[in-house]
Amino acid sequence: MSPALIVALLALLLGVQPITTDLYLPALPGLAAHLGAGIGGAQATLSALIFAFGLSQLLLGPMADRFGRRPVLLGGLTLFVVASAGSALAGDIGALVAWRALQGVGVGAAVVCARAMVRDLYVPTDGARVMSHALSGLGFIALASPLLGGLIATLLGWRAALAASGVFGLGCLALVAWAMPETVPRPNPAALRPGPMLATWGRILRNPTFVAWSLLIACTYGGLFAFLAGSAFVFIDILGSSRLACGLYIAGCSISYIVGTFWCRRWLLRHGLAGAVKRGAVFTLMGGVSMAGLAWAGVLSPWAIALPQMVYAFGHGIHQPCGQAAVVGPFPHHAGTASALAGFMLAVTAMAIGAWLGVAMDGTVLPLTHIVGVMALATTLVAWTLVQRHGERP
User: Rounded to whole angstroms, what are the CA distances from 251 to 142, 345, 375?
Assistant: First the structure.
């Protein structure tokens, strides 16, 4: 594959996740009203997806090491397309949650194979640069998703917003089938055997470099996920914004994230992986703390949420390319399994945050701003301690 094709393929495969989460966010309040579900029920459609996304990776990662990236991608994306159609046709909230869980399995296949492919093809530092290019493309997907979702939900309703993700998945499936060769250097015949698989998990989980980067990824995504899960209700139901305005606020955060991925490439050249993350955490901390502070001060404006989240998103654009490439760096022969364990930790964090928000949302902006502030502090702590000690080690 040419470098341009690799970047495009990675961007699209990683973009399956924001397409599945961000595109339907402006439709969440309407979905909840139409299906007779409250905030908790609507957010369960997101939590179920994230839970299945994380849990399925524990099997999908070893499968990708055993059989290769290509067959796992083809099967996972096919499941994603079918589940997207089922989501759009769901007649009640229970069926929708079930279909979204199956979508999560498909998203897991796309993401775990994409991260593993980077390690198949590049050493960690080069992989971080390639990943930053791919995540810039993902940022444009994330930018378009809430805008397109708000427009589709306004014109065609929430079912059309869910169906649109299936169209994207079908395009990814076609590209993988047409243009992607197998990238795994040597399939691992023992990857799915219980004994060797558990031993591999143990080695990976004890590796300090893996622990540092996987915690960074989980914490920084936790703040982003809190915003994604709660922002539509905060902007539309609490602060009175329109669906389209909600999409614009979320899109503004995506723009900031894209800028962060471009800046990441500059800092990687000058400061390396750990140095780039150390500087990105300054923005993460400023964004999270200012959002919580403005809420405590009683500043009730959409911009008091959106602007701090844009600052947080800039830091996220630094952390994600570095973390996604570095977390699989020490494991060239078990990249799929390492990617899966990192994804599982990320998903558990997001699921816990989604469950807490479903209970804690009380008609104010405080639950959302509190959790973003907490995750900003956690991300900064990991970036300034564990990553600095262990992040550059093989």
Answer: 7, 26, 21
**Residue 37's closest CA among 350, 358, 353, 368?**
358
- How big is the chain, counted in residues? 394
> Shortest CA distance to 217 belongs to which of 322, 308, 335?
322
Give the CA-trace dihedral at 193, 196, 201, 206, to 10 degrees. 180
Who contacts 105 (Cβ-Cβ below 8 Å, separation ≥6)?
52, 53, 56, 60, 76, 79, 80, 83
Burial-class residue 95 by CB neighbours within 10 Å (0-12, 13-18, 19+): middle
Q: Where are the domains of the chain?
A: 3-178+197-390
The three-class DSSP label of residue 294 is helix
Residue 106 in contact with residue 79, Cβ under 8 Å? yes
- For residue range 102-159, list pLDDT tens digits in order: 999 999 999 889 888 888 888 767 777 787 788 778 778 877 877 787 788 778 877 8
Q: CA-CA distance, 224 to 264, in Å (whole number)?
A: 18
Residue whose C-alpha is closest to residue 212's, from 286, 274, 167, 163: 274
pLDDT digits (tens, 9 = 90+) for 289-341: 999 999 988 888 889 999 999 999 999 999 988 888 788 878 877 777 888 88
List the one residue out of 347, 318, 306, 279 whose CA is nearest residue 136: 318
pTM over 0.85: no
Judged by DSSP in three states, 60 sits in: helix
The CATH code that applies to domain 3-178+197-390 is 1.20.1250.20
The region, left, alpha or beta by phi > 0 then psi within -120 to 50, assigned to residue 193 is: beta
The Cα 76–Cα 268 span in angstroms is: 33
